[in-house]
Write a structure and sequence with these properties.
By secondary structure, the chain is α+β, with helices and mostly antiparallel strands. The protein has helices at residues 15-34, 48-51, 56-61, 78-83, 86-93, 103-112, 157-173, 184-193, 200-207, 210-224, 229-239, 244-250, 255-271, 339-349, 369-384, 398-407, 418-423, and strands at 38-39, 45-47, 65-66, 96-98, 121-130, 142-151, 177-183, 279-282, 296-302, 313-318, 332-338, 362-366, 389-391, 412-416, 425-430, 436-440. The chain has two domains: 15-43 and 100-349, BirA Bifunctional Protein, domain 2; 358-450, 3-Layer(aba) Sandwich (Rossmann fold).
């Protein structure tokens, strides 16, 4: 007999977990709608040509490939199989892959539907993505992203709006956070100041690992990528600057770096004076490894005592993501919420609303078959009135029925027998306090405690 198992890096979600996840999704969906974003869904799989080359060297390695239908080895050159070169073999046996994020599929959708869209186009998307990463706490191979993007405008007020959206959504979720902001052109200015502008991507890939490996780890990676000791020292010196004036001076000979600082200043001007509930911080070390970012970039980390977790949100401005699909010059900016990590943070904080543990509002228990049919009628009326109600499947002794109610964490138990049936009433018991009430069946749907 085969022992059941799950693929590594994936999880089942039982009823309570699913309710908690729905709370996260509903909270974020409400925030997206209030900020004017429209819903969108795209397929789980995309053509590999759509996905490859959009996420940088590291990202391409994490793409899940889907084998072609049928005998996928039939037409492959035997010499290619004998060479055992995966990179050369993949294009011959796999033309599709599972989506790595929601941004690239969004760009593909925009290009394919550009004549039907009104720009700027604001969309939100809540769907799973897949990455062939090494599973660990807070990092899974299948996980949900919750994205908000606006495309078709260069206005920096959208950067400020997305910071607001982060601030609002995490306040509603009950998670204190730090919203980190930087700019890719500021990072390019650092590369120019260090004399390694031609190695910009290599530099940002290394810097992006700073929070995981520290400066020593970044030094080692840059050295492995053949950066000179002088360039490494200059990069580290600039990354250690906290004063904006000093940073401007350090990037004085870089027009790109100055432009990046100017755009950050413009975003701050929109946010100035707003009653934000979370800290917004310029973090010069924030890099974001995805190569399609060209402007402001964002990252969110939890700021709660005792919580250990990586980023729970991130995003940025991309000047020409649609260009690779034949529609150049369409600028966009977007952010993503890491729903699975948000779940883990709320669990660590013990901050999920208590009401989410309630599976059903009222459970009916009958003492005899005739009362069971009587209770079935009442349950039907309560459901029509919008109250979650359930009837225990078999009439009889109450002990077993109350044990079931306790396991289901039901708020109210409704007991009916011959006397209740004759008087057209129900005995309601508060499962927390033990307090009992006799209520007329015809007013039960409007009884305040059940609403």
């Amino acid at each position: 007999m085969q022992k059941p198992s799950l693929p590594e890096g994936t999880r089942d979600f039982g009823p309570e977990q699913a309710r908690r996840r729905a709370f996260i999704f509903d909270t974020l969906r409400d925030a997206f709608v209030r900020f004017g974003y429209e819903p969108l869904e795209t397929p789980a799989m995309e053509n590999l040509s759509t996905l490859t080359g959009k996420y940088g060297e590291e990202g391409d390695k994490l793409l899940f490939k889907i084998l072609n239908n049928g005998d996928y080895l039939k037409d492959v050159d035997p010499a290619l199989l004998a060479a055992r070169d995966s990179a050369r073999l993949v294009p011959h046996i796999a033309k599709r892959g599972l989506r790595y994020d929601l941004t690239v599929p969004f760009a593909r959708y925009v290009v394919m539907n550009r004549h039907a869209l009104t720009f700027p186009f604001k969309r939100y998307q809540i769907q799973p993505v897949w990455r062939a990463d090494r599973p660990q706490r807070g990092r899974y191979r299948e996980f949900y992203q919750c994205d908000a993007d606006v495309i078709g405008s260069d206005s920096l007020h959208y950067e400020a709006e997305l910071v607001q959206l982060y601030d609002d959504a995490f306040a509603r979720l009950g998670i204190p956070v730090i919203i980190k902001v930087n700019h890719r052109q500021v990072l390019y200015g650092i590369a120019e100041a260090a004399g390694v502008a031609d190695r910009f991507v290599d530099m940002t890939v290394a810097i992006d690992k700073l929070d995981k490996v520290g400066f020593e780890g970044v030094r080692q990676e840059l050295a492995q990528r053949d950066f000179s000791p002088e360039a490494i020292a200059q990069i580290e010196r600039i990354l250690s600057l906290n004063d904006r004036g000093e940073l401007r001076n350090a990037l004085g000979n870089s027009p790109a770096g100055q432009r990046g600082l100017d755009e950050l200043d413009a975003m701050w001007a929109y946010l100035n004076g707003l009653p934000l509930r979370n800290e917004v911080r310029h973090d010069i070390t924030l890099a974001r490894g995805l190569t399609y970012y060209t402007g402001c970039i964002f990252e969110v980390v939890a700021n709660a005592e005792g919580v250990r977790m990586g980023s729970i949100g991130g995003g940025g401005r991309y000047a020409d993501l649609t260009g690779v699909f034949g529609l150049p010059g369409l600028s966009g900016v977007g952010i993503s919420f890491g729903a699975d990590r948000i779940y883990d943070v709320l669990e660590q904080m013990n901050a999920f609303p208590e009401a989410l543990s309630e599976s059903v509002r009222v459970l009916f228990m009958a003492l005899d078959p005739e009362s069971h049919r009587y209770a079935f009628q009442i349950v039907s009326r309560l459901r029509t009135a919008g109250i979650s109600a359930e009837l225990y499947p078999e009439p009889g002794k109450l002990k077993k029925q109350f044990e079931y109610a306790a396991r289901r964490q039901v708020a109210w138990a409704a007991v009916v027998g011959e006397s209740e049936r004759q008087s057209q009433t129900v005995v309601l018991k508060d499962q927390q306090t033990g307090e009992q009430h006799t209520v007329a069946a015809d007013v039960l749907a409007t009884w305040p405690a059940l609403r």
